[in-house]
Write the structure tokens for this entry.
Amino acid sequence: MADVNPVLLDEQLCFSIYSASKKFNHFYQSALAPFGLTYPQYIAMLVLWEKAPLTVHQLGERLELDSGTLTPLLKRLEKQGWVSRVRSQTDERQVLIHLTEMATTKRDEVYSRIGQCQTLLGMTSDEIDSMMTELVTVKEQLDTVSHQRLIAKEVDKTN
Amino acid sequence: MADVNPVLLDEQLCFSIYSASKKFNHFYQSALAPFGLTYPQYIAMLVLWEKAPLTVHQLGERLELDSGTLTPLLKRLEKQGWVSRVRSQTDERQVLIHLTEMATTKRDEVYSRIGQCQTLLGMTSDEIDSMMTELVTVKEQLDTVSHQRLIAKEVDKTN
DNA sequence: TTTCAGAGTATTGTATACAATTAAATTGTC
DNA sequence: GACAATTTAATTGTATACAATACTCTGAAA
């Protein structure tokens, strides 16, 4: 019974994060409604505004998403006029994602819209910082466990 | 320029939460692979193990999910033999979700499996507690903002 | 009793996610 | 240069999420 509580705590933390993530999603969706951007589309644009063009793979590394998610997402962004997808001349495996003129023009508008909606979440910078540090710890731990499980699988195969 | 940093911090926190949520999801999916349960299916089972039967609505309140998500999820759980969906006799609008015998039998197995995989995330109980408290703050703040936006919409309509 | 507003669930349509596979291009190696 | 291994995107299939809508049932008011 002694080790039941921590397990429950972990589960509660997991659910809190899961729930907060959904709420953030909803918040951004509604804040960005005038632009028709979803949260994943928005963070893709953020990365591109910072440094475009990028290949699908490079974008995926930053966003931790694979082509299975990004290809359709980018097609939607293209359809809505935010980006253009151009097969690279030098390496035809790659597709370069460029910003359109509209995207460049609207960047400040989008930023300002987000700025208006930002509430700083009722937290100080220090609190946010410490929370992010803790989240990094959690993520690293989860990666470690996943990695251990991968190794365990390999060992399994040898039997 | 002075208020740019906090906005970026908020965004980074949002992304950290988004990313951690995905990692947790992956962790549970892989831990529960022997049972074929996903994370959302698992938390549905957790609630049901605690107190079944429940209506779709009651389950949705606990999980913060609506019937659009739950109906297909519960159909899959039913197909895999975890639950049965029974239209209520006393109020035919409601569908009661019951545990199957298999679900009752496998409960401890699932718990033990999760227990084995639990790593306590490299955090103390106090750290987890404080993190959850901060997440609650974040979620409340996001709810407040959403609520304000709803009110703003109402005001819009009157013009 | 009839009607009707609201409750509860299901359905439809859109947008992620991600595992697994496919297809095309490039690189490395002989 | 031929060819196997690798890389990069796209595709396919499954599972969430959620808004909007439809449909059925219930309870209350007229």
About this structure: The beta strands of chain A are 54-55, 83-87, 95-99.
